[in-house]
Design brief:
The strands form 4 sheets. A 9-stranded mixed sheet has the order 2-6-7-10-1-11-12-13-14. The protein is α+β, with helices and mostly antiparallel strands and 480 residues long. The protein is elongated and about 95 Å long. It contains 15 helices and 16 strands. It folds into 3 domains: 4-290, no CATH class; 302-413, no CATH class; 421-478, Arc Repressor Mutant, subunit A. It starts with a strand and ends with a helix. Helix content is 40%, strand content 21%.
């Protein structure tokens, strides 16, 4: 890598969460019995005609604006011809020379804290293909075809070749996913195929402005796959070039198990697809008023929300970035702050104990039984001395498991904090009598001994004692 640099562009396909497909009324629901979410239109049966779903255009405009693109006033659909079992018409309806939008950009941050800008060449609309299911049988391997996904609306987001490393590609993809989720047009679930990525990569001598021969890696369905596949392919191409060889333009696939890219076929060019305007779909004219209405409906996007969290709530850049990484988390945080106006305290609980419980249970925050009002109520119980912070962690776990309010959990389990000095004084006396060593250490100036004694009192009261009061009582006794 000292002598070469990578040049990477990503083509990201996003499934839109419309109720029906792009050119017919068939359902877009994920899963379902194979070949049941279909109709004569999406199966390409003779005599059928496509009708454009207006919601797809609306969602396309929204994503284009979120990515700082120019929205075309005039665009059209084209037929992209290729022959594969999961494409019933033997062509895909897509957009070629007159796409929905163009000339945008996305800013993203890499692990070293640096911000980069990647150009967005275009965002265009198209239909998805079906799905092949490969099987092994008694007479060898065979494939089944499920057409449920055929005709599901896609946006293809094509980046400029502005990315220079596998790690930067992952960071770009992560930020892109976050932006799309904020717009609400897709759930971006990579495990369900809602977001898929193809990567174009080449290498060239460092300092050169001439592009090398690129290869394409198809259908990468996780951030890890994108990063690992690019790392391997960059190293492979550098090895070829350093040995005096020539990189072959081809399409390759990623073998996750072996950790290598594998040649699939020679690289197709645009003329191979024999694009021409779809004669069954009229060109689309998008009025300025439509674009401006969608612009007004755009939510606050991640970058703006991060800045606001730092300016309005006084959070660090790191905290703001973690809290805004998913729209549901940011919404949850803000609702908590509305009810308990101490942003840093809320941030610590959301990013700490609540995140730990969510990760362990593999639950999204939108499905969490601890609602923002419940977390706010729990934090108020700490403030008014009803429970300690340590007890609150256990209460949160019970709330997470049962959905109960914090007051109910505290009452049922008898967790109210002990704040009466007359109740705690005998406990303090017993702890001091049972631990002469730490008592002597404290009186010899070893301040850490006090922490041990506090812990013993908390242990005897099962965490119910007020920590501040315990400290005060112990110091009073020890300093006599």
């Amino acid at each position: 890598m000292r002598d070469y640099e990578a040049v990477i562009g990503l083509e990201v396909h996003v499934e839109l969460k419309t109720a029906s497909k792009i050119f017919c009324h068939s359902s877009t629901a994920f899963g379902g019995t194979q070949n049941t979410h279909v109709c004569p239109v999406c199966l390409g049966l003779p005599g059928t005609l496509p009708v454009l779903n207006r919601q797809v255009v609306e969602y396309g405009i929204k994503v284009a604006l979120a990515l700082n693109c120019e929205v075309a006033r005039f665009c059209k659909f084209d037929r992209k011809h290729y022959f594969y079992p999961d494409l019933p018409k033997n062509y895909q309806i897509s957009q070629y020379d007159l796409p929905l939008s163009y000339d945008g950009y996305l800013d993203y941050q890499t692990d070293d804290g640096r911000t980069h800008r990647c150009g967005i060449v275009r965002v265009h609309m198209e239909e998805d293909a079906g799905k092949l299911i490969h099987r092994e049988g008694g007479k060898g391997s065979y494939a089944l075809v499920d057409y449920n996904r055929t005709g599901v609306p896609l946006l293809e987001i094509v980046s400029a070749p502005d990315i220079r490393s596998a790690q930067a590609a992952r960071a770009y993809l992560s930020e892109l996913k976050t932006v799309i989720q904020y717009t609400g047009v897709s759930d971006c679930k990579m495990e369900e195929g809602s977001l898929r990525c193809d990567a174009n990569v080449s290498v060239r001598p460092r300092g050169s402005d001439v592009l090398g021969t690129k290869t394409e890696i198809k259908n990468l369905n996780s951030f890890r796959a994108v990063e690992k596949a690019l790392e391997f392919e960059i190293a492979r191409q550098i090895e070829v070039c350093a040995a005096g060889g020539r990189v072959v333009p081809e399409t390759r696939s990623w073998d996750e198990e072996k950790g290598i890219t594998v040649s699939m076929r020679s690289k197709e060019e645009a003329h191979d697809y024999r694009y021409f305007p779809d004669p069954d779909l009229v060109p689309l004219v998008i009025s300025p008023s439509w674009i401006e209405r969608v612009r007004r409906e755009l939510p606050e996007l991640p970058a703006a929300r991060r800045r606001r969290y730092q300016d309005e709530f006084g959070l660090s850049e790191y905290d703001a970035r973690v809290l805004t990484a998913a729209r549901e988390t940011a919404d949850y945080f803000e609702e908590c702050v509305r009810q308990y106006p101490h942003p840093k305290v809320v941030a610590n609980w959301v990013m700490g104990d609540l995140a730990r419980l969510l990760n362990a249970a593999q639950v999204e925050i939108g499905e969490c039984r601890v609602r923002p009002g419940g977390l706010a109520a729990l934090l108020r119980l700490i403030d008014d001395g009803t429970i300690s912070g340590k007890i609150a962690k256990g209460v949160l776990e019970e709330m997470f498991a049962t959905g109960k309010e914090p007051q109910a959990v505290v009452a049922e389990k008898g967790l109210v904090q002990i704040t009466d000095p007359k109740v705690l004084a005998p406990v303090v006396d017993r702890v001091l009598a049972a631990n002469p060593g730490p008592v002597a250490d404290y009186r010899q100036g070893k301040s850490k001994a006090l922490g041990f004694l506090v812990g013993q009192v908390m242990k005897e009261t099962r965490g119910k004692a007020n920590p501040g009061l315990v400290n005060a009582l112990l110091k009073e006794k020890l300093d006599q």
